Amino acid sequence: MTLIPVEYHGVHTVGPEQFSCVLLRWAEQNRILPIWLSPISAADIDVRDSGYTPRRPGSQDIMSDLITRMTSGVSGVNIISHFEGVFIASIVFNDGEEVDARPSDAIKLARALEVDLKVEEDVLQQASFFVSDDVLEEYFDLRFGADARESGEAELSASGDAQADADFEEMMRSLGMSEADFFDEDSPGGPDTGGDNDTGVTKDDNGEK
Question: Model-level pTM?
Answer without folding.
Answer: 0.69
